[in-house]
Structures are given as C-alpha cells and as structure tokens.
Amino acid sequence: MLSFVLRRLAVAIPTLVLVSMLVFGLQKLLPGDPVLAMAGEDRDPQVIEQLRERYGFNDPVPVQYVHWAERVLQGDLGTSLRTHQTVTTLLAEKLPPTIELAVLSMLIALAIGIPTGILSAVRKGTWTDHLANVVALSGLSIPHFWLGILLILLFSVTLHWLPAVGYVPFGGDPAANLVAMIMPSVVVGGGLAAALMRHTRSAMLGVLKSDYVRTARAKGLLSPAVILRHAFRNALFPIVTMSTLLFGELLGGAVLTEQVFTIPGFGKLIVDAVFNRDYAVVQGVVLCVAAAFLLLNLIADVVYMLINPRLRRPR
Amino acid sequence: MSADPSVLPEDVVLAVEGLSIGFGGSPVNLVDGVSLTVRRGRTLAVVGESGCGKSITSLALMGLLPHPPARIGHQSARFQGIDPLTLGQRAFADLRGDRLAMIFQEPMTSLNPVFTVGDQITEVVLRHKKVGRSEALARAVKILNQVRIPAAEQRLSAYPHELSGGMRQRVMIAMALVNGPDLLIADEPTTALDVTIQAQILSLIEDLQATTGTAMLLITHDLGVVAETAHDVAVMYAGRIVESGPVEALFADPQHPYTVGLMGAMPQMGRREGRLLSIPGSVPAPALFPAGCRFATRCPFADDACRRSVPPATVVTPGHSVSCWKAPLEEHIVR
C-alpha cells in the first residue's frame, strides 16, 4: 500500500510541474497588462518601465517561469500586485471558508444523493423513481445563485430564521459560523446531490442486473442485504470517482454562491485576481487547486484499493 | 410422469402441475402447462434449445422471476408439503438457499467480486441456520473439501478473481449445497466451462448427489450431459413439455418428432458416415405459435389436426409419455 502511494506521488509531481507551466504560459496570453493596471490613470512611460523591470516582466517567459518556480519551491508564491499581501497569506485567509463550504456541501450531497439514487434504482419505473428524477433534474437545472437568492428571500427576509449574509470564521464563533453556512451549503450541496443521485441510480441499475445479485437472492438473502451488501458495494466505484471530481471542483470555489452569500473564499479571490491581471495570485491559487485535485485523486485511488479486491496485489 | 404408478409419493421432492408463464400484455404463454416431478436422489433433466422457456421455468420455481412483469399460473405445486408458488416473498426467501438451492450458468460472474469465498459461503449458512461464525466457517471448509477444492482452508480468504472458472463453479456448488437442500436446480451448470472441466463438474455433481440424496433439476441443451447425469428427462419445445420419461426409455425409443430430431443432431463417437441431421426451420416467435402443437411449423408429420389442437400427453410405457398426435411414431415412418 505504501509503495503504491509513493508511486502515485511520484507520478503526481510531473503533472504538477506541467500544470504550473500551463498556468504560467496561458496567463501570458491573456489580453491586458498588469503593469498598466497598476500604473493607474497617468501611464507615465517611465513608471511603467520601472515596474516592468521590478517585476521581471522584461525577461523572456521561460526565465520568468524559472524564477517563479524557484521561489515556489522555497514556499514563496509571490506577492499580490494589487494588495501587496503575500499570496500565501491570501491563500491561508481564503482557503478555510472554501474548504468548509466544500465539506459541508459534499456531506449534504452524499447524504441526499446516495440514498435517493439507491431508492430510485430499486424502485425503477415507480412514482418514487419518477419523483426523484424530476427533483434531481430540477436540482441540476436551477442555477445555484438564483436558488440562493430565493432561499435568502424566504428564510432571511420573510421568516428571519437565518442570516442573509455575513461570514463568521469558525474559530471565532462556531455556532454562528454553522448557522451562516446552512444556506450556502444547502444551495451547493443540493445541486451536487442531484448529480450524485443520477450517478448512483445508473450505477445501481447496472449492478442490480448482474449475476451475483441474482446469486445473492438465490441464497435467500433479504432485500436490504442484497441491495446494500451485494449491490451497493459494487456500485461504489463510479460513485467514488464522481464524488472526488465534484469535491475537487468545489475546492476551486463556488464563485457565484460565494458572491451571493458574501463568503470570502477562493472563488472571489480568483475572479478578482483574473480581472486585475494579478498574476502571482492567479498562479498561486491555480497551483494550490491543482495540488488539491491531485491529492484527492490519490485519496480516491487508495479508496478504490480498499473497496476493490481486484486491484490489490494477488497473494 | 406424474401418472407413473411406480413413483412413491414420499419420494417426490417437487411436483408441479400446469405451470404457465407469460410476460406483460402478451396473451401467449412462453411456458405453457408444464408439469414436472423431481424425485429424491434422482436428476430430472429439462432439455430444449435456447429460448424454449427452460430457464424461466427454473427461475419461477426459485421465486426469482419478478412478477409483474411475469404472469405465473399453475394448477398445483408441492415442495416440502407446501405450495411454494403461493408463498409470499419473505417466506420464499426463507426457503431459498436452505431447502431449495440453485447454481447458474456463468461461474465467472455469479460470485460477488468484492467478497471472499469464505464470506459468500458463510453468509448463506448464517442466513438460514442458527449457528455462530466459527461453526459457519467450519461448515464452509467441510463443503469446500466435499467439492474437492484443494487447500480449502486457504481458499476461504480468496476472492473470486483469484480462482479459475471450474473452481468458481465448485464454489457455487459448495454455496448451494452447504445447507443440505432437498432440491438443487442447476441451470446449464457446465455450459460456460471447458470440456475437460465440464466432465469433472458433472462427475462431482453426480458423486455429491449419490452421497447426499439431493434431488436435482438439471436445465440443459446438451443431450450428452443428459445421458451422462440424468435419470429422467423432459424435452421442452417452445414452452411445452413434448416428451418425458426415464433417460434409457427415451433415448431407446424417442416418440416425439422433436426428440428424434434432437437426437439426430447429436454427434456420436465412432460413427463416421452421414452428416449430422438438423431440424428444418427455427422456433417461431411466441406471437406466431400455432394454436395446436407448437412444433407443427417444423414437423415433417404435421397435418391440419396438429396445427388446430394441442395434443394431450399420452403414455407410451409406464413413466414415458409424449404429447404428439402422431405417436407412436413408427407407424408414420416409411422405411
């Protein structure tokens, strides 16, 4: 198991390097100039030239990349061109709300999506299945921000049950933090639940038709054991893949939802950085998200090994 | 066969009369008026080509045919002093894997890939018997030895993908027999295996039956398997039993044109001259079944009476009966 993890980590490193090159290179292709953005209204050519020299923008792109990569390896992701905070500080500040939103949304999605997916597959063709499908399709098609606004109207403006906006750090007041996170998590988690439900349903439908499920019934096992023990264990593989991908996406920040509920997370950070041509921040955020994605995939692979004996080395 | 006076009632493990199975809105019964009797320590083979309804018959007898969409009707059925076909789902499940067991055609896919052999065998013991885990494991080892799996104890922790097809089928047989069922239904148990392995599995099944006295319903399309393993045989065509009787009687003196055709289509060792015979045409789609004898569309002897009305089962010799207007067939064969 350990050697497997190490091998996977070794494969992850070139991937990460490639991602960093792509991000660095593509960004140079973006229209717009950070120096112009910084220089302000006057655009004094001398100031602009000074700034270019200072930030190394006059060097060839590969040289710029190597300089940047050297600093990254030392843990220095650079400084925001706009706010002059270090990128690591910005990440440390914006990451917790995003992770919290991602984890809570994922929990909600798993708790709703998997059971309804199983139920819908087992009761295929009945009104339970149809209802679940209609709800799931609505969940997939309703835009998150719009649902968020509706929820705010109902629970904050009309009923006064939940705060409309305002993020409270978990460390400051855990209770207030969780209350503030209910609506955003439901909005994001609900959409994901729909996707997970559809995946769980189709995975279960495939497995329920399999010969070993028929064998389980021929053994006289009752439906709960057949469905949960024999069928679901085998339907788990695509569900793990799907969940990993969804969770990885969440780490990139739920841009619109963060905007609606004014959560100071990754989504807002990266959008602002792109608009301001704040290269250092964009590179740092993307690199961080890519690393998280690779880590998640590694975790998914380990989970696969645990649930699928066919992937383990034969004894 | 039910008319056979030599059959003692206490020897009958399963007796079904007039089993009919249809699907959805179609008025045609894919299985029509099938009667079967399986006796203790004996094997009844149901033979027929694919699609003749033999597999859905076995699934219906196991309570594994979802209804709806299937419509299952029958006149009477007796197993363990009860009519299993009238049981509720829960009561039927209590019977399955315990008194009534089944092995399937595909050993490669019939075992659950994520559980060990030991888990899958002990599971069926723990489901039906009031024993602890260690006793269940002991029984699993014992039955694995009986199905001649080498190093049975080590195999308990093996996963299905670590075993060959023949070994997997042995595990399936072990799983079916571990609770000592009264009736074993084997649906094409050797079709997916290599010929040498087929012979091993068949002789294993025979030996186990000799020691346990389990009755067996063997579903197959292979007359060679029938000749080797079965005591009685029922020939099925398009959902009906056309001829049934003891294997020797039926092989020596086949009475139904379809049975005769099947035997002509079977290759024989030693005989070199001539070609294998084939039955002209193919099984019609259920919607096109004739009103009378369903074999009439392919039968060289068929006349209007055959096409119009269903031939009743007539006794040829005690235990051997045939459903054909032209029986005994000898009278129609011009030599």
List the helices and strands and how they pair.
The complex is a heterodimer of chains A (315) and B (335).
Chain A (H helix, E strand, L loop, with lengths): L1 H28 L4 H6 L5 H11 L5 H13 L13 H36 L4 H15 L2 H15 L15 H35 L2 H8 L4 H29 L3 H6 L5 H10 L3 H29 L8
Helix pairs in contact in A: 1-13, 5-6, 5-8, 5-10, 5-13, 6-8, 7-8, 8-10, 9-10, 10-13, 12-13
Chain B lengths: L11 E12 L5 E11 L3 E5 L6 H8 L8 E4 L2 E4 L9 H7 L4 E4 L3 H4 L6 H12 L4 H14 L5 H4 L9 H13 L5 E5 L7 H18 L2 E6 L2 H7 L2 E6 L2 E7 H6 L4 H8 L39 H5 L5 E4 L2 E3 L13
Parallel strand pairs in B: 3-8, 3-9, 6-7, 7-8
Antiparallel strand pairs in B: 1-2, 1-4, 1-5, 9-10, 10-12, 11-12
Helix pairs in contact in B: 4-5, 5-7, 7-8
Please provide a written account of the structure.
The complex is a heterodimer of chains A (315) and B (335). Chain A has 315 residues and is mainly α. Chain A has a domain at 96-265: MetI-like (MetI-like fold). Chain A has helices at residues 2-29, 34-39, 45-55, 61-73, 87-122, 127-141, 144-158, 174-208, 211-218, 223-251, 255-260, 266-275, 279-307. In chain A, α5 (87-122) packs antiparallel against α10 (223-251), α9 runs antiparallel to α10 (223-251) and α12 runs antiparallel to α13 (279-307). Chain A is globular and about 85 Å long. Chain B is α/β, with parallel strands linked by helices. Chain B has 2 domains: 9-99 and 182-268 and 276-283, P-loop containing nucleotide triphosphate hydrolases (Rossmann fold); 112-180, no CATH class. Chain B is globular and about 65 Å long. The mean pLDDT of chain B is 84. The chains are: A mainly alpha (315), B alpha/beta (335). The A-B interface holds A 210-212, 214-222, 225, 230, 233-234, 307-310, 314-315 and B 62, 64, 90, 93-98, 101-102, 104, 106, 109-116, 123-124, 127-128, 159, 161-162, 172, 175-176.
Which key terms come to mind for this protein?
heterodimer; A: about 325 residues; mainly alpha; MetI-like fold; 13 helices; B: eight-stranded mixed β-sheet; four-stranded antiparallel β-sheet; 12 helices; 12 strands; globular
